[in-house]
Write a structure and sequence with these properties.
By secondary structure, the chain is α+β, with helices and mostly antiparallel strands. Strand 8 and strand 9 form a beta hairpin. Helix 4 packs parallel to helix 5.
Length: 279
């Protein structure tokens, strides 16, 4: 069976799911959404969970099994928590203002651009001193929100050299990379995941056993002085290697946590390798 399709969908408090023929309706505090599905698939709602089953292992049924499960899950999350996207305007003179459902953009053209957004989308334009303007979009419909964001981004796509244009915020970009990496990287007790986090001043590293959900070894740059940030990161790398070897750990899976393999992150990883960790 489909790994995604067979996973049950938990129905949170305040959300109701009803099935009428080939249409699934989800209602919650954020709104109400409906989705038509392939009538060959069976949707069951019981014990606070939604499950989908398919009649055969045909290619079409296998493909749509996971697809419709994902769509129903997105509706459940949308009506209970909602979705939010932040878009950043990078460029001299770029501005964004909103009034009701109308978004006005100044993107370096000879004229302003006006976009009338669907009523399901809540929009807010935020401008702070010494920061790039932000467009904040919220909705319970993930598909519609993504389509609107793609349309806004197409008005001035980021150029590859200076990055001028409309893009998702830096935090969301890093979280997107982080989620993709975590889907492929997982640690065990014998081969834990070595994950890093850096702030403007400090850098942290820990070895995590994802199966048990616990941290085995951890250290940071707090209390370390002397040298540049890169040199301090190297000291942290050596320290985590020493602690790991003392705990009987010789091999890890490296998780750069969405950061580029450069600067302090690279220095820490190289020092950990020199200290005896294999990855």
């Amino acid at each position: 069976m489909s790994r995604i399709g067979k996973a049950p969908i938990e129905i949170p408090a305040g959300v109701t799911v009803t099935v009428k023929g080939d249409e699934v309706t989800v209602k919650g505090p954020k709104g109400e959404l409906s989705q038509k599905i392939n009538p060959d698939l069976t949707v069951n709602v019981e014990d606070g969970h939604v499950t989908l089953t398919r009649p055969s292992d045909d290619r079409e049924h296998r493909a749509q099994h996971g697809l419709y499960r994902a769509l129903i899950h997105n509706m459940v999350v949308g009506v209970s928590q909602g979705y939010r996207k932040e878009m950043e305007l990078v460029g001299v003179g770029y501005r964004a203002t909103s009034e009701g459902q109308v978004l006005e953009l100044a993107l370096g053209f000879s004229h302003a651009i006006f976009i009338k957004l669907p009523k399901e989308i809540k929009v807010e334009a935020k401008t702070e001193r010494n920061k790039n303007p932000l467009i904040i979009l919220e909705s319970d419909d993930k598909q519609l929100l993504g389509q609107v964001c793609a349309k806004i981004r197409s008005l001035r796509k980021p150029e590859p050299y200076k990055g001028k244009g409309i893009m998702i915020s830096k935090i969301q970009r890093r979280n997107k990379i982080k989620t993709r990496i975590r889907g492929k990287v997982s640690g065990t007790a014998s081969r834990p995941r070595m994950t890093v986090f850096r702030s403007n001043k400090q850098i942290y590293v820990q070895l995590v056993d994802d199966l048990e959900g616990k941290t085995l070894v951890a250290t940071s740059s707090k209390g370390l002085e002397g040298g540049t940030k890169t040199e301090v990161a190297a000291k942290v790398g050596k320290a985590i290697a020493e602690k790991a070897l003392a705990a009987g750990i010789t091999e890890v899976v490296f998780d750069r946590n969405g950061y580029l393999f450069h600067g302090r992150v690279k220095s820490l990883a190289d020092a950990a390798r020199e200290g005896g960790l294999k990855f």
